[in-house]
# Entry
Amino acid sequence: MAAPVKVYGPPLSTAVSRVLACLLEKDVEFQLVPVNMAKGEHKKPDYLKIQPFGQVPAFQDESITIFESRAICRYICEKHADKGNKSLYSTNPLVKASIEQWLEAEGQSYNPPSSTLVFQLAFAPRVNIKQDEAQIKLNDQKLSKVLDIYDQRLESSRFLAGDEFTLADLSHLPNTHYLVTVGNRGEAFSSRKNVDRWWNEISSRDSWKKVVEMQKSK
Amino acid sequence: MVMKVHGAVLSTAAMRVFATLYEKDLEFEFVPVDMGAGEHKQERFLALNPFGQVPAFEDGDLQLFESRAITQYIAFAYKDKGTPLLCEGKPMATVSVWMEVEAHQFDTAASKLQWELMFKSIFGMATDAAVVEENEAKLSKVLDVYEARLSQSKYMGGDCFTLADLHHLPVLTNLMGTTVKKLFDARPKVSAWAADIMARPAWAKVLAMKNQQ
# Structure
Protein backbone atom coordinates (compact mmCIF):
# COMPACT_ATOMS: atom_id res chain seq x y z
CA MET A 1 0.00 0.00 0.00
CA ALA A 2 1.34 3.46 -0.85
CA ALA A 3 2.61 5.73 1.91
CA PRO A 4 0.21 8.49 2.91
CA VAL A 5 0.71 11.77 1.10
CA LYS A 6 2.26 14.63 3.05
CA VAL A 7 0.71 18.06 3.49
CA TYR A 8 2.99 20.73 4.92
CA GLY A 9 1.43 23.59 6.87
CA PRO A 10 -1.04 24.44 9.64
CA PRO A 11 -4.77 23.61 9.20
CA LEU A 12 -5.52 27.21 10.22
CA SER A 13 -4.11 28.36 6.87
CA THR A 14 -6.92 28.83 4.33
CA ALA A 15 -4.86 27.34 1.52
CA VAL A 16 -3.84 24.33 3.62
CA SER A 17 -7.45 23.72 4.67
CA ARG A 18 -8.49 23.76 0.99
CA VAL A 19 -6.22 20.79 0.38
CA LEU A 20 -7.32 19.00 3.56
CA ALA A 21 -10.99 19.31 2.55
CA CYS A 22 -10.17 17.81 -0.85
CA LEU A 23 -8.21 14.88 0.65
CA LEU A 24 -11.08 14.11 3.01
CA GLU A 25 -13.66 14.27 0.20
CA LYS A 26 -11.54 11.87 -1.84
CA ASP A 27 -10.82 9.50 1.10
CA VAL A 28 -7.08 9.83 0.56
CA GLU A 29 -4.86 9.12 3.55
CA PHE A 30 -2.54 11.94 4.47
CA GLN A 31 0.04 12.98 7.01
CA LEU A 32 0.03 16.57 8.20
CA VAL A 33 3.56 17.94 8.63
CA PRO A 34 3.69 21.00 10.88
CA VAL A 35 5.45 24.14 9.66
CA ASN A 36 6.20 26.62 12.43
CA MET A 37 5.28 29.87 10.72
CA ALA A 38 5.62 31.93 13.89
CA LYS A 39 9.30 30.96 13.86
CA GLY A 40 9.62 31.66 10.12
CA GLU A 41 10.16 28.03 9.20
CA HIS A 42 8.41 28.60 5.86
CA LYS A 43 11.06 31.11 4.82
CA LYS A 44 14.05 28.88 5.61
CA PRO A 45 16.13 27.13 2.93
CA ASP A 46 14.87 23.61 3.75
CA TYR A 47 11.27 24.63 3.19
CA LEU A 48 12.02 26.87 0.21
CA LYS A 49 13.30 23.75 -1.55
CA ILE A 50 9.76 22.39 -1.67
CA GLN A 51 7.90 25.71 -1.96
CA PRO A 52 10.07 28.44 -3.48
CA PHE A 53 7.58 31.21 -2.65
CA GLY A 54 7.83 30.42 1.06
CA GLN A 55 4.10 29.78 1.43
CA VAL A 56 1.94 26.95 2.71
CA PRO A 57 0.84 24.36 1.71
CA ALA A 58 3.42 22.18 0.05
CA PHE A 59 2.55 18.59 -0.87
CA GLN A 60 4.42 15.37 -1.49
CA ASP A 61 3.16 12.14 -3.02
CA GLU A 62 5.83 9.47 -3.52
CA SER A 63 8.41 11.19 -5.72
CA ILE A 64 6.41 14.25 -6.67
CA THR A 65 6.44 17.57 -4.81
CA ILE A 66 3.92 20.24 -5.71
CA PHE A 67 2.49 23.48 -4.33
CA GLU A 68 -0.39 25.96 -4.96
CA SER A 69 -3.50 24.62 -3.21
CA ARG A 70 -5.71 24.53 -6.31
CA ALA A 71 -3.06 22.63 -8.31
CA ILE A 72 -2.71 20.16 -5.42
CA CYS A 73 -6.48 19.64 -5.36
CA ARG A 74 -6.60 19.01 -9.11
CA TYR A 75 -3.74 16.52 -8.80
CA ILE A 76 -5.46 14.62 -5.97
CA CYS A 77 -8.72 14.46 -7.91
CA GLU A 78 -7.08 13.31 -11.15
CA LYS A 79 -4.88 10.70 -9.52
CA HIS A 80 -7.73 9.31 -7.43
CA ALA A 81 -10.58 9.79 -9.88
CA ASP A 82 -12.22 6.55 -8.71
CA LYS A 83 -11.89 7.18 -4.96
CA GLY A 84 -14.25 8.91 -2.57
CA ASN A 85 -16.34 11.71 -4.08
CA LYS A 86 -16.11 10.93 -7.79
CA SER A 87 -17.99 14.00 -9.03
CA LEU A 88 -15.70 16.43 -7.22
CA TYR A 89 -13.71 16.97 -10.44
CA SER A 90 -15.43 15.22 -13.32
CA THR A 91 -13.55 13.46 -16.08
CA ASN A 92 -16.30 14.40 -18.53
CA PRO A 93 -14.80 17.30 -20.57
CA LEU A 94 -17.97 19.40 -20.67
CA VAL A 95 -18.67 19.05 -16.94
CA LYS A 96 -15.01 19.64 -16.15
CA ALA A 97 -15.05 22.85 -18.22
CA SER A 98 -17.81 24.26 -16.02
CA ILE A 99 -15.95 23.25 -12.85
CA GLU A 100 -12.78 24.91 -14.16
CA GLN A 101 -14.73 28.06 -14.99
CA TRP A 102 -16.02 28.44 -11.43
CA LEU A 103 -12.72 27.38 -9.90
CA GLU A 104 -11.06 30.17 -11.90
CA ALA A 105 -13.86 32.57 -10.87
CA GLU A 106 -13.11 31.65 -7.24
CA GLY A 107 -9.41 32.25 -7.71
CA GLN A 108 -9.72 35.46 -9.71
CA SER A 109 -12.88 37.15 -8.39
CA TYR A 110 -13.79 35.68 -4.99
CA ASN A 111 -10.40 35.04 -3.48
CA PRO A 112 -8.86 38.54 -3.74
CA PRO A 113 -11.53 40.43 -1.76
CA SER A 114 -12.33 37.54 0.61
CA SER A 115 -8.72 36.78 1.49
CA THR A 116 -8.00 40.46 2.11
CA LEU A 117 -10.99 40.57 4.46
CA VAL A 118 -9.91 37.34 6.17
CA PHE A 119 -6.49 38.81 6.78
CA GLN A 120 -7.84 42.15 8.01
CA LEU A 121 -10.63 40.73 10.17
CA ALA A 122 -9.31 37.38 11.39
CA PHE A 123 -5.53 37.42 11.31
CA ALA A 124 -4.36 41.04 11.70
CA PRO A 125 -5.80 41.43 15.20
CA ARG A 126 -4.10 38.19 16.28
CA VAL A 127 -0.66 39.42 15.30
CA ASN A 128 -1.15 42.99 16.49
CA ILE A 129 -1.31 44.52 13.03
CA LYS A 130 -3.58 47.54 12.79
CA GLN A 131 -6.64 46.98 10.64
CA ASP A 132 -6.92 49.08 7.49
CA GLU A 133 -10.48 50.42 7.51
CA ALA A 134 -10.28 51.66 3.93
CA GLN A 135 -9.20 48.23 2.68
CA ILE A 136 -11.99 46.57 4.67
CA LYS A 137 -14.61 48.89 3.19
CA LEU A 138 -13.31 48.51 -0.36
CA ASN A 139 -13.21 44.74 -0.17
CA ASP A 140 -16.61 44.47 1.51
CA GLN A 141 -17.97 46.30 -1.55
CA LYS A 142 -16.10 44.04 -3.99
CA LEU A 143 -17.27 40.92 -2.15
CA SER A 144 -20.83 42.20 -2.22
CA LYS A 145 -20.75 42.50 -6.02
CA VAL A 146 -19.36 38.99 -6.38
CA LEU A 147 -22.00 37.57 -4.04
CA ASP A 148 -24.74 39.24 -6.10
CA ILE A 149 -23.43 37.36 -9.14
CA TYR A 150 -23.27 34.12 -7.15
CA ASP A 151 -26.83 34.59 -5.88
CA GLN A 152 -28.05 34.95 -9.44
CA ARG A 153 -26.12 31.88 -10.58
CA LEU A 154 -27.32 29.77 -7.65
CA GLU A 155 -30.95 30.64 -8.41
CA SER A 156 -30.83 28.25 -11.35
CA SER A 157 -28.08 25.90 -10.18
CA ARG A 158 -27.81 23.92 -6.95
CA PHE A 159 -24.04 24.30 -6.83
CA LEU A 160 -21.77 26.65 -8.77
CA ALA A 161 -20.82 24.31 -11.61
CA GLY A 162 -24.10 22.40 -11.76
CA ASP A 163 -26.12 19.87 -9.78
CA GLU A 164 -23.20 18.33 -7.90
CA PHE A 165 -20.84 19.60 -5.24
CA THR A 166 -17.48 20.08 -6.93
CA LEU A 167 -13.98 21.43 -6.42
CA ALA A 168 -15.36 24.84 -7.45
CA ASP A 169 -17.60 24.98 -4.36
CA LEU A 170 -14.98 23.36 -2.11
CA SER A 171 -12.47 26.03 -2.99
CA HIS A 172 -14.70 28.65 -1.33
CA LEU A 173 -14.91 26.87 2.04
CA PRO A 174 -11.76 28.17 3.76
CA ASN A 175 -12.14 31.94 3.29
CA THR A 176 -15.92 31.89 3.74
CA HIS A 177 -15.67 29.98 7.01
CA TYR A 178 -13.50 32.70 8.52
CA LEU A 179 -15.68 35.46 7.07
CA VAL A 180 -18.89 34.16 8.64
CA THR A 181 -17.30 33.28 12.00
CA VAL A 182 -14.53 35.57 13.29
CA GLY A 183 -15.05 38.01 10.43
CA ASN A 184 -18.68 38.74 11.37
CA ARG A 185 -19.70 38.79 7.74
CA GLY A 186 -22.46 36.17 8.10
CA GLU A 187 -25.12 38.61 6.98
CA ALA A 188 -23.54 39.10 3.57
CA PHE A 189 -24.23 35.41 2.98
CA SER A 190 -27.47 34.88 4.91
CA SER A 191 -29.14 37.93 3.34
CA ARG A 192 -28.82 36.41 -0.15
CA LYS A 193 -31.35 33.59 -0.45
CA ASN A 194 -29.48 31.29 -2.80
CA VAL A 195 -26.01 32.03 -1.44
CA ASP A 196 -27.41 31.26 2.05
CA ARG A 197 -28.79 27.90 0.89
CA TRP A 198 -25.54 27.06 -0.88
CA TRP A 199 -23.30 28.06 2.01
CA ASN A 200 -25.36 26.06 4.52
CA GLU A 201 -25.22 23.04 2.29
CA ILE A 202 -21.50 23.07 1.50
CA SER A 203 -20.36 23.98 5.00
CA SER A 204 -22.35 21.09 6.47
CA ARG A 205 -20.39 18.49 4.58
CA ASP A 206 -18.61 15.97 6.82
CA SER A 207 -15.27 16.72 5.19
CA TRP A 208 -15.50 20.40 6.08
CA LYS A 209 -16.66 19.72 9.61
CA LYS A 210 -13.57 17.57 10.09
CA VAL A 211 -11.31 20.34 8.80
CA VAL A 212 -12.88 22.83 11.20
CA GLU A 213 -12.19 20.37 14.05
CA MET A 214 -8.58 20.11 12.92
CA GLN A 215 -8.32 23.91 12.95
CA LYS A 216 -9.58 24.01 16.55
CA SER A 217 -7.11 21.47 17.83
CA LYS A 218 -3.91 23.04 16.38
CA MET B 1 -20.33 25.19 -36.01
CA VAL B 2 -17.29 27.40 -35.48
CA MET B 3 -16.03 28.33 -32.00
CA LYS B 4 -16.65 31.91 -30.97
CA VAL B 5 -14.56 34.23 -28.82
CA HIS B 6 -16.28 37.34 -27.57
CA GLY B 7 -13.79 40.00 -26.55
CA ALA B 8 -11.43 42.77 -27.58
CA VAL B 9 -8.01 42.57 -29.25
CA LEU B 10 -6.46 44.68 -26.49
CA SER B 11 -7.78 42.42 -23.72
CA THR B 12 -4.93 40.38 -22.26
CA ALA B 13 -7.36 37.72 -21.13
CA ALA B 14 -8.87 37.41 -24.62
CA MET B 15 -5.36 37.20 -26.07
CA ARG B 16 -4.71 34.12 -23.94
CA VAL B 17 -7.56 32.41 -25.71
CA PHE B 18 -6.56 33.60 -29.21
CA ALA B 19 -3.02 32.34 -28.59
CA THR B 20 -4.33 28.90 -27.66
CA LEU B 21 -6.55 28.70 -30.75
CA TYR B 22 -3.68 29.74 -33.05
CA GLU B 23 -1.27 27.28 -31.40
CA LYS B 24 -3.77 24.53 -32.12
CA ASP B 25 -4.60 25.74 -35.65
CA LEU B 26 -8.28 25.91 -34.80
CA GLU B 27 -10.76 28.03 -36.69
CA PHE B 28 -12.74 30.51 -34.68
CA GLU B 29 -14.93 33.56 -35.06
CA PHE B 30 -13.89 36.70 -33.20
CA VAL B 31 -16.93 38.62 -31.98
CA PRO B 32 -15.83 42.12 -30.95
CA VAL B 33 -17.29 43.52 -27.75
CA ASP B 34 -17.34 47.32 -27.65
CA MET B 35 -15.99 47.88 -24.16
CA GLY B 36 -15.68 51.64 -24.70
CA ALA B 37 -19.47 51.69 -25.10
CA GLY B 38 -19.94 49.44 -22.05
CA GLU B 39 -21.22 46.52 -24.08
CA HIS B 40 -19.63 44.05 -21.64
CA LYS B 41 -21.87 45.31 -18.84
CA GLN B 42 -25.09 44.91 -20.79
CA GLU B 43 -27.66 42.10 -20.42
CA ARG B 44 -26.77 40.33 -23.66
CA PHE B 45 -23.13 39.97 -22.70
CA LEU B 46 -23.84 39.29 -19.01
CA ALA B 47 -25.73 36.20 -20.17
CA LEU B 48 -22.36 34.90 -21.44
CA ASN B 49 -20.27 36.16 -18.52
CA PRO B 50 -22.14 37.30 -15.41
CA PHE B 51 -18.95 39.03 -14.18
CA GLY B 52 -19.18 41.43 -17.14
CA GLN B 53 -15.63 40.67 -18.28
CA VAL B 54 -14.05 39.53 -21.52
CA PRO B 55 -13.55 37.02 -22.96
CA ALA B 56 -16.56 34.77 -23.25
CA PHE B 57 -16.39 31.63 -25.37
CA GLU B 58 -18.75 29.33 -27.22
CA ASP B 59 -18.15 25.87 -28.65
CA GLY B 60 -21.48 24.54 -29.88
CA ASP B 61 -23.76 24.49 -26.83
CA LEU B 62 -20.89 24.98 -24.39
CA GLN B 63 -20.48 28.50 -23.05
CA LEU B 64 -17.50 29.43 -20.89
CA PHE B 65 -15.83 32.41 -19.26
CA GLU B 66 -12.48 32.85 -17.40
CA SER B 67 -9.62 32.78 -19.93
CA ARG B 68 -7.64 30.06 -18.11
CA ALA B 69 -10.68 27.78 -17.97
CA ILE B 70 -11.27 28.37 -21.69
CA THR B 71 -7.66 27.66 -22.65
CA GLN B 72 -7.66 24.47 -20.57
CA TYR B 73 -10.91 23.33 -22.14
CA ILE B 74 -9.53 23.90 -25.66
CA ALA B 75 -6.25 22.18 -24.80
CA PHE B 76 -8.07 19.07 -23.49
CA ALA B 77 -10.87 18.94 -26.03
CA TYR B 78 -8.51 19.37 -28.98
CA LYS B 79 -5.42 17.73 -27.57
CA ASP B 80 -4.58 15.95 -30.81
CA LYS B 81 -4.55 19.14 -32.85
CA GLY B 82 -1.60 21.50 -33.29
CA THR B 83 0.75 22.16 -30.34
CA PRO B 84 0.11 19.91 -27.35
CA LEU B 85 -0.28 22.50 -24.62
CA LEU B 86 -0.72 20.09 -21.71
CA CYS B 87 0.87 16.82 -20.53
CA GLU B 88 -0.50 13.40 -19.65
CA GLY B 89 -0.07 11.80 -16.24
CA LYS B 90 2.42 12.94 -13.62
CA PRO B 91 4.05 15.79 -15.62
CA MET B 92 0.62 17.48 -15.72
CA ALA B 93 0.84 18.08 -11.96
CA THR B 94 3.88 20.31 -12.46
CA VAL B 95 2.26 22.17 -15.37
CA SER B 96 -0.74 22.75 -13.10
CA VAL B 97 1.47 24.18 -10.34
CA TRP B 98 3.07 26.76 -12.63
CA MET B 99 -0.29 27.68 -14.19
CA GLU B 100 -1.44 28.56 -10.67
CA VAL B 101 1.80 30.48 -10.08
CA GLU B 102 1.12 32.60 -13.17
CA ALA B 103 -2.48 33.21 -12.09
CA HIS B 104 -1.77 34.10 -8.46
CA GLN B 105 1.86 35.20 -8.15
CA PHE B 106 2.85 36.68 -11.51
CA ASP B 107 -0.43 38.10 -12.74
CA THR B 108 -1.30 40.02 -9.56
CA ALA B 109 1.78 42.27 -9.64
CA ALA B 110 2.20 42.23 -13.42
CA SER B 111 -1.37 43.32 -14.15
CA LYS B 112 -1.08 46.25 -11.76
CA LEU B 113 2.13 47.37 -13.45
CA GLN B 114 0.58 46.97 -16.89
CA TRP B 115 -2.36 49.08 -15.79
CA GLU B 116 -0.16 51.83 -14.32
CA LEU B 117 2.45 51.97 -17.06
CA MET B 118 0.49 51.18 -20.19
CA PHE B 119 -3.29 51.32 -19.95
CA LYS B 120 -3.51 54.45 -17.81
CA SER B 121 -1.73 56.53 -20.43
CA ILE B 122 -4.02 55.12 -23.13
CA PHE B 123 -6.95 56.38 -21.05
CA GLY B 124 -5.24 59.68 -20.24
CA MET B 125 -4.79 58.93 -16.53
CA ALA B 126 -1.71 59.64 -14.37
CA THR B 127 0.65 56.86 -13.24
CA ASP B 128 0.90 56.22 -9.47
CA ALA B 129 4.63 55.91 -8.77
CA ALA B 130 4.11 54.33 -5.36
CA VAL B 131 2.01 51.50 -6.84
CA VAL B 132 4.65 50.96 -9.52
CA GLU B 133 7.44 50.76 -6.95
CA GLU B 134 5.50 48.36 -4.71
CA ASN B 135 4.61 46.03 -7.56
CA GLU B 136 8.04 46.11 -9.17
CA ALA B 137 9.39 44.85 -5.83
CA LYS B 138 6.77 42.08 -5.75
CA LEU B 139 7.37 41.10 -9.36
CA SER B 140 11.14 41.04 -8.75
CA LYS B 141 10.69 38.41 -6.05
CA VAL B 142 8.54 36.32 -8.35
CA LEU B 143 11.07 36.62 -11.16
CA ASP B 144 13.83 35.46 -8.81
CA VAL B 145 11.85 32.25 -8.30
CA TYR B 146 11.34 32.03 -12.07
CA GLU B 147 15.09 32.42 -12.67
CA ALA B 148 15.78 29.49 -10.33
CA ARG B 149 13.00 27.42 -11.90
CA LEU B 150 14.19 28.05 -15.46
CA SER B 151 17.70 27.01 -14.45
CA GLN B 152 16.26 23.52 -13.88
CA SER B 153 13.61 23.43 -16.55
CA LYS B 154 13.48 24.64 -20.14
CA TYR B 155 9.91 25.89 -19.80
CA MET B 156 7.86 26.74 -16.72
CA GLY B 157 5.99 23.42 -16.62
CA GLY B 158 8.77 21.15 -17.86
CA ASP B 159 10.60 20.34 -21.08
CA CYS B 160 7.95 21.56 -23.46
CA PHE B 161 5.94 24.70 -24.07
CA THR B 162 2.58 24.47 -22.33
CA LEU B 163 -0.24 26.67 -21.07
CA ALA B 164 1.97 27.39 -18.04
CA ASP B 165 4.13 29.49 -20.41
CA LEU B 166 1.40 30.67 -22.79
CA HIS B 167 -0.72 32.28 -20.06
CA HIS B 168 2.11 34.77 -19.44
CA LEU B 169 2.33 36.03 -23.01
CA PRO B 170 -0.19 38.87 -23.08
CA VAL B 171 0.89 40.70 -19.92
CA LEU B 172 4.56 39.80 -20.45
CA THR B 173 4.50 41.36 -23.93
CA ASN B 174 2.87 44.51 -22.60
CA LEU B 175 5.42 44.84 -19.80
CA MET B 176 8.28 44.48 -22.28
CA GLY B 177 7.09 47.75 -23.80
CA THR B 178 7.55 49.54 -20.46
CA THR B 179 10.40 50.28 -18.02
CA VAL B 180 9.59 46.95 -16.31
CA LYS B 181 11.53 45.30 -19.17
CA LYS B 182 14.66 45.89 -17.07
CA LEU B 183 13.46 43.35 -14.49
CA PHE B 184 13.33 40.64 -17.16
CA ASP B 185 16.59 41.70 -18.85
CA ALA B 186 18.43 41.46 -15.53
CA ARG B 187 17.72 37.72 -15.27
CA PRO B 188 19.36 35.67 -18.05
CA LYS B 189 17.18 32.55 -17.91
CA VAL B 190 13.96 34.54 -17.61
CA SER B 191 15.08 36.84 -20.41
CA ALA B 192 15.85 33.91 -22.74
CA TRP B 193 12.55 32.19 -21.90
CA ALA B 194 10.60 35.40 -22.53
CA ALA B 195 12.28 35.94 -25.90
CA ASP B 196 11.65 32.32 -26.87
CA ILE B 197 7.92 32.28 -26.12
CA MET B 198 7.27 35.74 -27.59
CA ALA B 199 8.88 34.60 -30.85
CA ARG B 200 6.34 31.83 -31.41
CA PRO B 201 4.48 32.16 -34.76
CA ALA B 202 1.09 31.70 -33.07
CA TRP B 203 1.82 34.69 -30.83
CA ALA B 204 2.73 36.83 -33.86
CA LYS B 205 -0.72 36.01 -35.26
CA VAL B 206 -2.36 37.25 -32.05
CA LEU B 207 -0.42 40.51 -32.21
CA ALA B 208 -1.36 40.89 -35.89
CA MET B 209 -5.02 40.94 -34.86
CA LYS B 210 -4.45 44.41 -33.38
CA ASN B 211 -3.39 45.71 -36.78
CA GLN B 212 -6.54 44.41 -38.41
CA GLN B 213 -8.80 46.53 -36.19
